[in-house]
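Incident review: delayed structure delivery

Summary: a single-chain prediction request sat in the queue longer than the usual turnaround. Root cause was a stuck worker, restarted by the on-call engineer. No data loss occurred. The affected request and its eventual output are reproduced below so the record is complete for anyone auditing the incident later.

Affected input:
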Amino acid sequence: MVGGLLFSQLITLYVTPVFYTYLNGFNRRVEGGLSREEARQESVAGQPHPVG
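Output delivered after worker restart:
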């Protein structure tokens, strides 16, 4: 029983925050990549196309 309590405390206090930290970093990279891609498409769309 004590082992189960220690295990659940370990999961709650250490593993869960680390998991959310990694997910937060992943989310920022994905959002940053999408916003850069959207900005690139807008800048390309605003430029006149060369003739020929």
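Verification: Helices lie at 2-46.
Action items: add queue-age alerting; document worker restart procedure.
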